Every structure is written in C-alpha cells, then in structure tokens.
C-alpha cells in the first residue's frame, strides 16, 4: 500500500483516483486468491472423477453391452458430459466441425495410428 501513500501526496490526484486504485488492487488480490482455490479444487475433483470412472462399468452387464457398443466402459460418463455440453452451447447458423487426435496408447478398439501427427496413437474425436 506504499503506492497509495505516495499517490495521496501528489496534488493532482483526487480521492476518487485513489479509491479506484484501491478497488483495483483489492479485486486483483482476491481474484488471485480465488483462482488458486479453484485450481486446487479442480485438481481434487479431477482425481475423484477418474476414480469414479473406473468403478462405473458393471461386470454383470458388460458382455451384453460390449457386443453393441465399443464405448461401453465410459458410456454413462460420455452421455452425461455431452448432455451438459448441449445445455451450455447453442450453435448458430454457421458452425464448423473439426477433428482432434487425443493422445492415448492404451488398449482400445477404436484407437487410430497416424504417423504424421506429433502424437501418433490416439482416439479421433469430431
């Protein structure tokens, strides 16, 4: 707050300028504080969601579902995520669809190998 003390000594500065600077500094420090908290919570939630995904697939119905659907192990999570995205995004008249290769080297029936990409193996998403 040394800056604010120096500003109040200058004759040209008015009280409203000082209050604006105080407001800006307090807002900036609060934003940094809350951003750190959000990042920590996000990391904790991400770890919890990964462990939940591993437990979603029921062994008793897996064989039947796998015959019809290759995305069986994570189908419920995929549908929930897509439903939430549809609620948040409304497409307009002009829309562009792009593809992305998500790096993945695990066992998966729809993994693709693209030797010209930086990450050669992965899942292609449109």
From TrEMBL:
Residues 57-68 have a biased composition (Basic and acidic residues). Residues 61-126 form the PiggyBac transposable element-derived protein domain. Residues 41-68 are annotated as: Disordered. InterPro entries: PGBD. It comes from the Eukaryota. This is PiggyBac transposable element-derived protein domain-containing protein. It comes from Ignelater luminosus (Cucubano).
């Amino acid at each position: 707050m040394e800056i604010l003390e120096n500003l109040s000594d200058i004759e040209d500065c008015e009280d409203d300028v000082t209050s604006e600077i105080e407001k800006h500094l307090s807002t900036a420090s609060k934003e940094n504080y809350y951003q750190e908290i959000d990042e920590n919570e996000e990391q904790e939630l991400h770890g919890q969601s990964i462990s939940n995904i591993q437990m979603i697939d029921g062994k008793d119905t897996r064989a039947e579902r796998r015959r019809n659907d290759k995305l069986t192990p994570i189908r419920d999570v995929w549908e929930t995520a897509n439903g939430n995205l549809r609620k948040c995004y409304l497409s307009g008249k002009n829309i562009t669809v792009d593809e992305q290769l998500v790096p993945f080297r695990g066992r998966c029936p729809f993994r693709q190998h693209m030797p010209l990409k930086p990450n050669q193996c992965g899942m292609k998403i449109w």
